[in-house]
Write a structure and sequence with these properties.
alpha+beta; Alpha-Beta Plaits; Arc Repressor Mutant, subunit A; 9 helices
Length: 186
């Protein structure tokens, strides 16, 4: 049985969900970002218990088709931003259409209608949070960060970062203690 989870955006989320499933005695096949696959059907009571447990981490089970599709779009976008690491810049629109088997126009309109922001704005927000993370860890130069996130140049990265945060990446680096926004709050 597949169960979809809202706001699941990192490895620690997956671990938290796995622990909740084990604690409730629900046998699992796998836990992916935004998705749980169980060995057997899960009762409504077990779903309520699971939902209650995972809400502690800002997660939530999804029941409606709309929410499931939004989470699938978010999952592809997060994977695109966090796991592209300088690979040739594939167009996100093509990737999303291929992954979800809908036209990009349909998905973009649907996402905008439900989330009140465009997919492009969401991707930019994800990239900005990823840039903050990479700056805070301090292991990469701005040039390496630009390459990892498929920016055409450091200048392009800097302009977008400043437009979104009000700070240059260099200034942000000096303020390392500035908190990041969790992916769930984007």
């Amino acid at each position: 049985m597949k169960i979809y989870v809202k706001n699941m955006a990192c490895e620690s989320c997956k671990l938290f969900v796995k622990e909740a499933l084990v604690e409730l005695g629900i046998p699992i096949i796998r836990v992916e970002l935004g998705e749980i696959v169980t060995k057997q059907d899960v009762s409504d009571d077990e779903k309520r218990q699971l939902n209650s447990k995972i809400k502690e981490a800002g997660l939530e089970l999804l029941e409606k088709k709309q929410g499931v599709l939004i989470e699938k779009i978010r999952k592809v976008a997060i994977d695109y931003v966090y796991n592209s690491d300088g690979q040739p810049n594939h167009r996100f629109s093509s990737l999303l259409s291929k992954e979800l088997d809908y036209t990009y126009t349909y998905l973009a309109n649907f996402f905008s209608e439900i989330q009140a922001i465009t997919i492009e704005q969401f991707i930019i927000s994800l990239k900005i949070e990823r840039i903050k993370e990479l700056i805070i860890f301090g292991e990469d130069t701005f040039s390496e960060i630009a390459h990892k996130l498929n920016y055409s140049s450091v200048q392009h990265l800097s302009m977008q970062f400043k437009k979104m945060t009000g700070l240059t990446p260099s200034h942000f680096k000096k303020l390392k203690d500035k908190r990041r926004i969790t992916l769930q709050n984007i």
